[in-house]
Amino acid sequence: MNTTSSTFFSALCDEYFYSSEWLTFTVCTYITFQTVFWSYNLFLLYIEYHDIPCIDQYRIQKHRVKLRFQPDLLRQLRNGTFKHQLSLILTLPFLYHMLNYFGHVSVHSSIPSILTIIWQLTIFILAEDFLFFWTHYLFHTRWLYKHIHKQHHIFKQPTGVVFVIADPWELLIQNQLAVWIAPIFFKEKHLFTICLWIFLRVYQTINAHSGYDLPYISPQYYFPWLLSGTLQHDYHHQHAKMNYGSFLTLWDRLMNTHRLHNLAIE
Ligand SMILES: [Zn+2]
Ligand SMILES: [Zn+2]
């Protein structure tokens, strides 16, 4: 497995990207992001524009009309997505240098063992969830909410792409810093692990904003006690309070901020 994987990434780098590890890294991470972003979001937009009873039964805020009947919000989504795509192209080329500042990103070497990948991703998740929870908690204090975080909360009924609608300070601190703080300080990290991390984080946030409590494809369907997800973050958008965590319910349970929709009443 190692030889094949090593050959794959080396070949990619040497044959298609002029032996530039920076270029290989930037293209691979960009493609990973875009693949998850567009496939999941286009699926969610498709089900917003079509009434499919077997999927609509999982829509959380059934008392509100679907997004296709809310042109102002759709316009906000279009503008927000355009700005986000632009900022991605402008900032992604720096990620490789950032991750190489304290450690080293491997491109030519073999893919790490499955155990190494799992424990590294576990640390990434724990660090991200810790920082996300506490910055998000602070963003809900009066001044910070009014001047920064309110922008993200214009969507009381979210859909996947809503995660890009945020103040630049929020995007920088709550999203980017929380995601990259652990990988930055890791001595050795492989491009493959970084792509997996981007996949997990983007999938998680789109899923949390999806507005549908879909079985099977939602991670919290399998570990409802441990993982935060759609039901928690949807409640957070509807009420603008509670459920501040991203991946885990850990900090919300400790701080007594964990709440779920009472679907029977709503
Ligand atoms: Zn949100
Ligand atoms: Zn919030």
From TrEMBL:
InterPro entries recorded: Fatty_acid_hydroxylase, Sterol_Desaturase_Related
Domain spans labelled Fatty acid hydroxylase: 122-257
Compartment annotation: Membrane
One Pfam family in the UniProt entry: FA_hydroxylase
GO biological process, one term: lipid biosynthetic process
GO cellular component: membrane
TM stretches of this protein: 22-47, 86-105, 117-139
Keywords from the named record: Membrane, Transmembrane, Transmembrane helix
Top-level taxonomic group: Eukaryota
Entry's Gene Ontology molecular function annotations: iron ion binding; oxidoreductase activity
Protein's UniProt keywords contain Ribosomal protein: no
Keyword Protein transport belongs to the record: no
UniProt name for this protein: Fatty acid hydroxylase domain-containing protein
The organism of origin for this protein: Adineta ricciae (Rotifer)
